[in-house]
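Subject: Protein record for review, amino acid sequence with C-alpha cells
Why sent: The fold of this protein is of interest and is recorded here as C-alpha cells.
Enclosed: The protein record, placed directly beneath this head.
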Amino acid sequence: MTRQEKGLWATVIVLTACVIGMGGWVLFSGIFSQEASPSLKDGSLAVASIQDRAITEDEWVDELKKRYGREMLMTMLNRQAVALEAKAKGIDITTAEVDAEIDVMSRSYGSKERFLSEMENQLGITEAELRMETTYRMLLEKIATSDVYIEPQQIDAYLELYPDQFRPKKQLNLSMIEVASEDEANQAMDRLENGEDFAALASEISLDEYTREEGGQIGLIEEDDPFLPPALLDAALELEPGDIAGPISLTDTYAIVYLHDIIEPKAPSEDKIREAVRKQLALEQSISLSELERQLREKYEARISAGTVTL
C-alpha cells in the first residue's frame, strides 16, 4: 500500500467515522441532562453559550441535519439494507476474517500495533471504528461477489501475469534533512559526526516543511516508493540501520538521510494469495459497491420521509 493509498483509505474511514459520530450525537442528544443544560422558554436545552446568547440543542441538531443529515441517513439505510441481504443470503464476517484483513492493511506500516497507533494518533480513528468499517466493507464485498465464480485457471493466469504483486516489499523507516546547498549539507554532516542529534538538527535547519516539525521523520516508505526522490531512495537502500548518508543532490536542494530501521514483512501463504486474487477478480466482474448499496436500498424499500432532510 503506497502512501497515497494509505491516505485514500484513511480519508474514507475518517469521513465515515465523522458521519457516524455526528449521527450518534443527533440520535442520542438526549444525554444532555436538565441539570447540565437548563431549558429555555421554548423547552429546548442550551448546549452552549457566548456572552448572553444561548445555542440550543434544537439549533445544533438542525444545523447538523442540514449539513450531514442526508449522509447520515444514507449510511444508516445502507447498513440496514446490507444487514438484511446478508441475513437472507446467510453471509457473515467472522472476527478472524476482520483480524486477517487488518493484518493485510497493517503490512505496509511494519506492524499491526504501529498501524493502529497511527490511525488513532494521527487520524483519531479508534480500533473499534476501524473494525466496524472494515467489517461493513467486507460484508458488502461478500454480497457483491456471492454469485461470481472464478475458475482456478483464471487465478493461475493472473499470478503468471503479475508474479510480484504479492511479494512483500521492504519498509524503510527514514528521516531526512533538506538544505539549500552542498556546503550547508556538508556542515550539517560535520555537526552530526560531532554528536549532534539528527532530529534536533532537522528541526533547526531542514527546509522540508512536512518533516521539519517531526524532527525530519519521513516514516515508513516502501523500497520502490514513487513519491520519494530516486536519489534519496537509492542512498537509503545502501544503508544499514543507524547509518546516515549525505550530501545527496536533489533537484534544487541537498539532503541527508538517516535510516532508523528496515522491516521485511512476512510473505502471505499461497492459499491467502490465491484467495486475494479470487476476490479481486470477482470484484472486477461484479457491480460497484456503491451501486450494490443503491440496489439494496431499493430492494428493501428504503425511504426518507419528506421534509426530514434536504435531498
